[in-house]
Amino acid sequence: MTEELTKPIPEAPETPEPPRPKETRWTKIRAGVEALLFSSPRPIPEKEIEEALEATREAVSEALEALRQDSEAADRGIRLELVAGGWRYVTRPEFDSLLRKYH
């Protein structure tokens, strides 16, 4: 009987937590998308943005399109472009001479 008392109790197998639902609203991730793009020295593929923000493909696409449209305004110094399989902010061409002079 004492032998039974000293036996270790087997641990219950860990059940993984269910995955968190992905964000589906582009309005909730827009600022995060902008921050990622602004801080990255390289173009970021949409898939990486989805993973970083735990968002759906549709939400990321819609957020990128909204940011791209905003950056097309004539009073903006930067624009959002798709290049080399990823998205990045670039300066508008009309500011090239100003930037060369400054740098």
Architecture overview:
A two-stranded antiparallel ribbon has the order 1-2. It starts with a helix and ends with a helix. The mean pLDDT is 91. A hairpin with a 2-residue loop joins strand 1 and strand 2 (86-91). By secondary structure, the chain is mainly alpha-helical. The radius of gyration is 24 Å and the shape is elongated. Helix 2 crosses helix 4 (57-71) and helix 3 packs across helix 4. It contains five helices and two strands; from the N terminus they run ααααββα. The protein has helices at 2-6, 26-39, 46-53, 57-71, 96-102; strands at 78-83, 86-91.
> What share of the residues lie within helices?
40-55%
In N-to-C order, the SSE pattern is HHHHEEH
Uncertain residue ranges: none
- Rg from Cα: 24 Å
Quick structural overview:
By secondary structure, the protein is mainly α.
Annotate the secondary structure layout.
Elements: H1 2-6, H2 26-39, H3 46-53, H4 57-71, E1 78-83, E2 86-91, H5 96-102
Antiparallel strand pairs: 1-2
What key phrases describe this protein's structure?
single chain, 103 residues, mainly alpha, two-stranded antiparallel sheet
